[in-house]
Design brief:
The complex is a heterodimer of chains A (208) and B (137).
Chain A lengths: L1 E7 L5 E6 L2 H33 L4 H16 L12 E2 L2 E2 L2 H23 L5 E5 L4 E6 L5 E6 L7 H17 L17 H12 L7
Antiparallel strand pairs in A: 1-2, 1-7, 3-4, 5-6, 6-7
Helix pairs in contact in A: 1-2, 4-5
Chain B lengths: L1 E7 L5 E6 L9 H18 L15 E4 L3 E6 L5 E6 L6 H17 L13 H13 L3
Antiparallel strand pairs in B: 1-2, 1-5, 3-4, 4-5
Classes of the chains: A alpha+beta (208), B alpha+beta (137).
InterPro entries (chain B): Longin-like_dom_sf, TRAPPC
Family (chain B): Belongs to the TRAPP small subunits family. TRAPPC4 subfamily.
Organism (chain B): Gigaspora rosea
C-alpha cells in the first residue's frame, strides 16, 4: 500500500506532493471538519466586526462572549485557514507543516547515517509500526520520499525511476520550467502529475 | 555481526554506549551524546508524521542504510535500546529484548544506581559482552 510521495528541492522546500489511499480512510472526518472550519471562520469575521461598530460600551463583553462561544465549539479550528488543514486525533496534520517535519526527519537521518558509515547516500528507509518511509536523493540534491505500509520492500528503484523517467522528461526537459522550481513551479505540470500517478497506481505494491 | 549498542534514557541522554565490532566510523564522546539526543528527537517526530490517519504509530523501529541496519526498541518506561548491526544479521529483536533483561538484572536491580545516569557497572559490561558473543556478534 502506497500512501504518499514528497519531492524536496535543495532549499528544503517541498516542491511536489501527491497522496493515495488517504481520502478513503479519513474522508468523512476530513469533509465534516473542513465544512466546520470554513463556516466558523466566516461567522467569526462577521460577528465581532458588527459588535465593534454597533456599540463600543458593550463590545468587549459581547466579543468575549462570542469568542467563548466559538472557543467552546471549535477551539482548535479557528487558526486554520488553508483548505488542506484538518484535525484528527487532536493533532494538526496540515500538509505544509507535515512536509517540513518529514524533511527534517529525512535530513537528520541522512546526516546520522552519513556520519556513521561515511557514505553520502547511505540512508535507504526506515520503518515504524504502521508505515515505512523510503528515501532517494539525486546528485543534484533533490530528495524523493515515499511512504508505504511497513511490509513493503525497498522502493528506491521506483523513486529512481520516477526521477529518471518522469522528472527528467517532464520537468527538467521543459524549456519553460524555471531553474530551481521556486514554490513548485515547473514541477506542478499536468504531464508529470498524471505520469507519476499512473505509474504508481500500476505498481504491484500499490494496493496490496 | 553487531556493531554497537546504545541505551538512551527517556529524556534523550546517552546512558550507555559500547562498540563490539569494527566497521563503522568512530565518533568522539561528544558526538555520541549528540547522536543520542538527535535520535531521541527524530524518534519522537517519526511517530507524529504517520500517513495513516486515526491510528497511533510507534516511533522509528528499524532504520535501513546500505552498510548497516539500526534497530530501536523502546520500553514502556521510555528507555530506548539501539543496536546497530550488519544488514544480514537475523533476530535482532530477540537480542534487544535480552539486552533489556540484562539491563533489568544488573542495572535496575542495583540499589546504588541512580536512574537516568550513565551506566558504570562491571557486571553489566561483562554480561552484555557475553550476550553479544552468544548471538554471534
Amino acid at each position: 500500500m502506497i500512501y504518499n510521495l514528497y519531492i524536496f528541492d535543495r532549499h528544503c522546500v517541498c516542491i511536489f506532493y501527491i497522496d493515495w489511499h488517504r481520502h478513503r480512510k479519513s474522508g468523512g472526518i476530513m469533509g465534516s471538519n473542513n465544512a466546520g472550519t470554513t463556516s466558523t471562520t466566516t461567522s467569526m469575521n462577521g460577528q465581532p466586526d458588527g459588535g465593534d461598530s454597533g456599540g463600543s460600551s458593550s463590545s468587549p463583553a459581547h466579543s468575549a462572549a462570542a469568542n467563548n462561544h466559538l472557543a467552546s465549539h471549535h477551539s482548535t479550528t479557528s487558526q486554520l485557514t488553508s483548505a488542506t488543514s484538518m484535525f484528527s486525533d487532536s493533532r494538526l496534520v496540515n500538509i505544509e507543516e507535515e512536509a517540513k517535519l518529514v524533511y527534517g526527519v529525512v535530513r537528520t537521518l541522512r546526516n546520522l547515517v552519513n556520519k556513521l558509515s561515511g557514505n553520502q547516500d547511505g540512508f535507504i528507509s526506515y520503518r515504524t509500526s504502521n508505515y515505512k518511509l523510503h528515501y532517494y536523493e539525486t546528485q543534484t540534491g533533490l530528495k524523493f520520499v515515499i511512504n508505504t505500509d511497513p511490509s513493503t520492500d525497498s522502493l528506491r528503484p521506483v523513486l529512481r525511476q520516477i526521477y529518471t523517467n518522469f522528472f527528467v522528461e517532464y520537468v527538467v526537459k521543459n524549456p519553460l520550467a524555471p531553474v530551481g522550481h521556486p514554490g513548485g513551479e515547473g514541477v506542478n505540470n499536468e504531464y508529470f502529475k498524471a505520469a507519476v500517478d499512473k505509474f504508481v497506481k500500476n505498481l504491484p505494491v500499490f494496493d496490496s | 555481526m553487531i556493531y554497537s549498542l546504545y541505551i538512551i534514557s527517556k529524556a534523550g541522554g546517552l546512558m550507555y554506549q559500547k562498540d563490539f565490532n569494527e566497521g563503522l566510523a568512530h565518533l568522539t564522546a561528544n558526538e555520541y551524546l549528540v547522536f543520542a539526543g538527535t535520535f531521541h528527537g527524530v524518534h519522537a517526530i517519526t511517530s507524529k508524521i504517520s500517513p495513516v490517519r486515526n491510528s497511533t504509530s510507534s516511533g522509528l523501529e528499524v532504520l535501513e542504510a546500505d552498510s548497516f541496519k539500526l534497530y530501536c526498541f523502546q520500553t514502556l518506561t521510555g528507555t530506548k535500546f539501539l543496536i546497530i548491526a550488519d544488514p544480514t544479521h537475523p533476530n535482532i529483536d530477540l537480542v534487544l529484548r535480552r539486552t533489556y533483561d540484562v539491563y533489568s538484572d544488573y542495572v535496575m536491580k542495583n540499589p546504588f544506581y541512580t536512574p537516568e545516569m550513565p551506566i558504570r557497572s562491571e557486571l553489566f559490561d561483562i554480561n552484555i559482552v557475553k550476550l553479544i558473543k552468544q548471538v554471534g556478534g
